[in-house]
Specification:
This protein has helices spanning 2-12, 24-34, 39-58, 65-116. The protein has 117 residues and is mainly alpha-helical. The longest helix is centred in the last third of the chain and has 52 residues, at 65-116.
Length: 117
C-alpha cells in the first residue's frame, strides 16, 4: 500500500526540469510549440511505427515493414521540417506564386483573344 501511495504522489509532484512556482504544463507546451516539431506528425509517425512493429511481431516478420518504413520516413520528415523549414517553404511559396502568375497570364490572354474574335 505504501508503494502505491508513493507512486501516485510521484505523479502529482512537479518534474525536475520545471520550477515549483510556475505552471510547468504551460511552459512545456510553449517550449514544444516553439521547438519547430509538428506534434501531429510526431503522433502519426509514432502510431505508424507502433502498428508496424505490432504487425511484424504478430505475423513473425511477414507484414508490417511498410508501416515501419513510413513511420521512420515521417520522423525524418518532421526533423527536416523543423530544421530546414524556411529553406523548404520559401522556395515552395515562390514557385507556387510564379505558377499562379503564369496561369493567370494564360487565362487573361485567352480572354483577350476571345474578346477580339
Amino acid at each position: 500500500m505504501a508503494f502505491v501511495c508513493v507512486f501516485i504522489s510521484g505523479c502529482a509532484s512537479p518534474w525536475a526540469g520545471s520550477s515549483a512556482g510556475g505552471s510547468s504544463l504551460a511552459a512545456s507546451a510553449k517550449g514544444a510549440a516553439s521547438s519547430g516539431y509538428d506534434p501531429v506528425l510526431s503522433f502519426v509517425a509514432a502510431a505508424c511505427l507502433l502498428a508496424g512493429v505490432a504487425a511484424l511481431v504478430v505475423t513473425r516478420g511477414k507484414l508490417g515493414t511498410r508501416a515501419v518504413v513510413v513511420g521512420l520516413g515521417l520522423v525524418v520528415l518532421n526533423y527536416v521540417l523543423a530544421s530546414w523549414g524556411a529553406w523548404l517553404f520559401i522556395p515552395v511559396l515562390v514557385a507556387t506564386g510564379a505558377v499562379s502568375l503564369a496561369y493567370a497570364y494564360v487565362i487573361v490572354r485567352r480572354l483577350l483573344k476571345m474578346r477580339k474574335a
